[in-house]
Amino acid sequence: MNGSQTPARPPPPLSGRGSPLSRMPPRKSLALFAFIFLINYLLMRFLFPGEQPVTVPYTEFRQQVAAGNVIALYSRGTTIEGRFRNAVTWPTPEEVKQAGQPPRPTPLDRRLLPPPKTSSHFNTELPAFFDRDLEDFLINNKVEISAVPIQQGGLWTTLLYFGPALLIIGFYVWMYRRAAQGGGMGGGGVFGIGRSKAKRYDATDPSLRVTFNDVAGIDEAEAELVEIVDFLKAPDKYTRLGGTAPKGVLLIGAPGTGKTLLAKAVAGEAGVPFFSMSAAEFVEMIVGVGAARVRDLFKQARESAPAIIFIDEIDAIGRARGGVMVGGGHSEQEQTLQQILTEMDGFTGREGIIVLAATNTPDVLDRALLRPGRFDRRVVVNLPDKAGREAILKVHVRKTPLAADVRLEELAQATPGFSGADLKNLVNEAALLAARRSEAAVTHKDFLDALEKIVLGPERPLLLTLQDRERIAYHEGGHAILGLVVPGADPVHRVSIVPRGQALGVTYQRPQTDRYNYPEAYLRARIIGMLGGRAAEEVVYGTKTTGAENDIEQATQLARNMVTRWGMSEAVGMVQLAPRENHFLGAPGGFGGEKPFSEQTAALIDAEVQRIIHGCHEEAKRLLREHRRALDGLVSALLNKETLSEEEILQATGLPPAPQLEGAPIREKTV
């Protein structure tokens, strides 16, 4: 044929998603619908039999018409059906028949007969010699003569008889379509609950793309993932020599260190889709849903390969199997874990799919997850050091106007132990504080006030007496003086007697550099400084208050760790008597069961802890008596200004900074 012809549109598929058949219920459903209708009709007929018409004689019919009790009627041949205005009671045909036959029925016979009927509907038969003037008689008595049968119940009766069945069938059809939209009954499950809830981040969207330029302070972890990015960009570079990409990378670190951000940066650098999902979202009340969601997640990733799957808090489903849990929850968790293991075993290394997972508790993960071929690499994301914190602050202040007096290096030095999320919160709180103060830019004081608010809480407008303020000033002054005179103590950065949160005052001591190892002399110096508030109260007033509760708690914990964990007691020796803390959460672990030492050892531990605390307390009182004049001068300045900086503290006391050994983590002293 000459000319062009538009190609015919292919016919719609006969099966599969989007086809007409996929939207139609199966044939067996039609039989089910019919069965539901039948059961519904019979049940309604039994429970609500409705109003049955009574059969009345023709004479009674005329009497009711004359009395004006007939509203309407319908005639078909010699049969008349009608409706009374007021319901009448009439004996049943059996009663009428027996009543006309002698002898009359006995009371027992009457009890065996059906009861009389009361109804507003009736029927009667016209006699062969009926009155020809019946029509005029009916019209004169205002009876409506209808040409169609009179309906009994109407719409409400129809709804009563068929409404429940229609609701059940409608619910079934809706459920079926939801399941079809969710990937079918096999893949999506009922209501699509088997569908994964993973959030997809497309690297092509500039507003969502995250790169290594947005990540700072975790250079070691970033360097470990550069190879992953390179493989996703050029897989042939590695596969040509027979190598395969790692199937999984486990990110381990404390909360807020940037594990999720780092995973997004890997996807952004590689320019591949990023599927993010929390492990807790896999598990549902219905057993098997978690495994179905795992299958659907990996199916989506394969369809978009190369891609990255990120599972946050994988310990929620990746805990070691074999434990006993109440309610059978372990069964669902184990099924979900086994499905993840199966999906990762299905990788050949050529699909371009890499699984990233994050956790704070790597010790509880199942060993099958950590074996080679599953999570081949483990990347530890540590808390940033001083240089890292400064780099993170520079990232977060990109869109924040800063005043000329802001010193990010000093802020980084004053925030050891802060994660990336903590530093982001610090910048945000400082910006909000500057906005409340109607400032054009964020100042260094805004950052310091925001730091105090984060650590201790907002200011409390308490009305304190002069005696209370003086006692609080001596308490905080005791901490500060010992921070200046004890060798190896952290430098005193700030002292305040402004109530914040649960604290009536605070003393900040910041390190010169980050510390990763703690000598015994430094730990004792810290305990001496912690007990400085109580020691100052005893030296000045000769009495004690409840203000040292937090100090005593910290000092006791530190002294107990020296004895039970770090072997710094000659009497106890180098024996592990306390569980190791979780390095990433800071929470103590547990031996499980009873304590692994005798009562004699427990008594010895208590005695050593008391010895360390008592010795440090006595040393604190001795040093404060020796520097009483400096203490009084510091208290006078505190009562005058309430908050003193490092320079103002040195000026008020006339003391030089304490000889420094090495830095240590930040510590706050509260009353």
TrEMBL record:
Q: Write out the catalytic residues in the record.
A: E476
Residues at which Zn(2+) binds: H475, H479, D551
Q: Name one GO molecular function term.
A: ATP-dependent peptidase activity
Primary location = membrane
Class of this enzyme: hydrolase
What InterPro entries is this protein classified in?
AAA+_ATPase, AAA_lid_3, ATPase_AAA_core, ATPase_AAA_CS, FtsH, P-loop_NTPase, Pept_M41_FtsH_extracell, Peptidase_M41
Any idea which positions bind ATP?
G253, A254, P255, G256, T257, G258, K259, T260
Q: Which keywords label this protein?
A: ATP-binding, Cell membrane, Hydrolase, Membrane, Metal-binding, Metalloprotease, Nucleotide-binding, Protease, Transmembrane, Transmembrane helix, Zinc
Annotated region (Disordered) at 1-22, 650-671
Per UniProt, the cofactor note for this protein states:
Binds 1 zinc ion per subunit.
A GO cellular component term found in this entry reads:
plasma membrane
The record, for Gene3D superfamilies, names: 1.10.8.60, 3.30.720.210, P-loop containing nucleotide triphosphate hydrolases, Peptidase M41
Family matches, as PROSITE patterns: AAA
EC numbers: 3.4.24.-
> Subunit comment for this entry?
Homohexamer.
Per its database record, what is this protein's job? Answer: Acts as a processive, ATP-dependent zinc metallopeptidase for both cytoplasmic and membrane proteins. Plays a role in the quality control of integral membrane proteins.
Name of this chain's protein: ATP-dependent zinc metalloprotease FtsH
Q: Which source organism? A: Ramlibacter henchirensis
Higher taxonomy: Bacteria, Pseudomonadati, Pseudomonadota, Betaproteobacteria, Burkholderiales
